[in-house]
């Protein structure tokens, strides 16, 4: 297959291999970290059995990076990105071990939640650094394949980490020591990712121009001005700004469906009094989504080259609309899983194309800010989706009228973006 041969070409690039290793190990640890949070926030007996509860949990998880994101952009355009990967993973080691220690001594409390939010915010910062660094180790047509495979395989690594954490939870005795052990293993993986980052040269990942301490302070003091300059740059380039706009729209609509899936899994397709059964049901939804992500990684490099990345985004939005129309007809388990596969394929396929457009059409000096703005929009859209879900979703999560409206919204987004997208080059 073409994608396999191109992956082999990528793996022949030594700098790509080093960056890719950092991503895989770091995201495996993140999967272990997040599986514990998911169980705590969404599938514990006392939490998140209502639309409002799930929406509030997502807002708490995502709002911090929505605030931190703009600062990340300024720093990623001035700090050595290799050092960001090194130091950021080390900080995660310290925070994760601190959480494990608090769980052993005091149990779950406000400090655990605060530290968990900081840990997740650092992870989003690291992911932005990884995305901004990729064009420094890959260029030309292989960049599309790299954008397709690295986030998807990174998500697969996170899934592997989540699976390891779940298995450890089954093998270990219930209690505080079980949670602390899982977190300790995650911390070991973060430490490994930090060490792997040292295999790369300090200047390999850019940025090309750096500033001294005084200039850095001035840059931070003029954060708003820098972000406005970054946004103006994206708008002047046109295609990155439009791509970010359609991504935010897609993410908003996807967020409503994701929250509905949690509620449907817990309260409709399983006994609401049995959160463990709801977790198993939602696990099958996540597995179906993983299939869609893999399909996106395989299909996008092939089909996007034929259609062009802009047309591919339109096709993905149409596929997302079809997935929602299916849920207006039935909410049986097979329909939910089929819709999850289709929507994940659409979401990840569009994201791959958006990543490529933003990377290709943004100057390196602005690329860090571009991806920080990307993550701010990405998370803010999901927070907005959570607010909408809290208002319109029943606690069972199922509303045929809402799914129909989501389908119409996807089709409208496809029509608007398709009408304004350039039609010149097919290849990114």
From TrEMBL:
| Protein name in UniProt | MFS transporter
**CDD domains from the UniProt entry:** MFS_MefA_like
Residue intervals passing through the bilayer: 20-43, 55-76, 142-168, 252-269, 281-300, 312-331, 337-358, 370-392, 398-419
Q: Which GO terms describe its cellular component?
A: plasma membrane
As one GO molecular function, the record gives: transmembrane transporter activity
UniProt xrefs under Pfam families: MFS_1
What does the record say about its membrane topology? Multi-pass membrane protein
Subcellular location(s) per record: Cell membrane
Instruction: Give UniProt keywords alphabetically.
Output: Cell membrane, Membrane, Transmembrane, Transmembrane helix
Stretches assigned to the Major facilitator superfamily (MFS) profile domain: 243-428
User: Is the keyword Cell membrane assigned to this protein?
Assistant: yes
Q: Which InterPro entries match?
A: MFS, MFS_dom, MFS_trans_sf
